[in-house]
Design goal:
- The protein is 41% helix and 14% strand.
- By secondary structure, it is an alpha/beta fold.
- α4 packs parallel to α5 and α6 packs across α7.
- It is elongated and about 65 Å long.
Length: 184
């Protein structure tokens, strides 16, 4: 018997921005006996199997700067990465950096997080300050850098820091986008 593709899962996948070709493949994987009502959620489980999951940035240490638009969740993501690091390693091996001096209280969130986690927190307003603060913490196996919303100042500071060969291992820039963002 041919598989009857029910419209609700296909429509829902299209509405959340899943490409038509991927949505069709997922719906085709639904069991043939699935009724329209019963097929309301299995397609989301099938979608999850198609999504590749990368390791968390900095899971092996290094120097990671989170960049993205204002309100994307950079500081929240940094907090989650920091908490995970402290749970899996010791807090003395983590350094939190802020170059977010554009926003009122931008660095204050990191200072509070640092106090809660028992980790060092530094702030810098230029590439030279950033490199100097990093040099003050040679024991840090992971450095997480919080940046202001994408802008010239953040890009300039990170570029200068990345150009300093003695500053740290390679700086990894990781983009943070809101989960609700669409490809367009």
């Amino acid at each position: 018997l041919p598989l009857v593709i029910c419209a609700p899962p296909l429509v829902e996948l299209a509405e959340i921005g899943i490409g038509r070709d991927i949505a069709r493949r997922i719906v085709e994987e639904l069991p043939a006996a699935t009724q329209a009502r019963a097929a309301q959620r299995p397609h989301l489980a099938l979608l999850a199997r198609h999504l590749p999951v990368a390791p968390a940035p900095g899971s092996d240490g290094g120097c990671v700067a989170l960049v993205g638009p204002s309100g994307a969740g950079k500081t929240t993501t940094l907090a989650k990465l920091a908490a995970r690091w402290v749970l899996e390693h010791d807090s003395a091996s983590l350094l939190l950096m802020s170059i977010d001096d554009d926003r009122i209280g931008g660095g204050e969130q990191l200072r509070i997080l640092g106090r809660l986690l028992g980790v060092a927190v530094e702030a810098a307003s230029s590439g030279a300050q950033l490199a100097a603060r990093l040099a003050d913490h040679p024991h840090a196996r992971l450095v997480l850098i919080d940046t202001p919303g994408l802008g010239a100042r953040a890009a300039e500071a990170l570029t200068r820091m990345a150009e300093r060969p003695s500053a740290r291992p390679a700086l990894a820039l990781r983009g943070v986008l809101p989960a609700s963002a669409h490809a367009g």
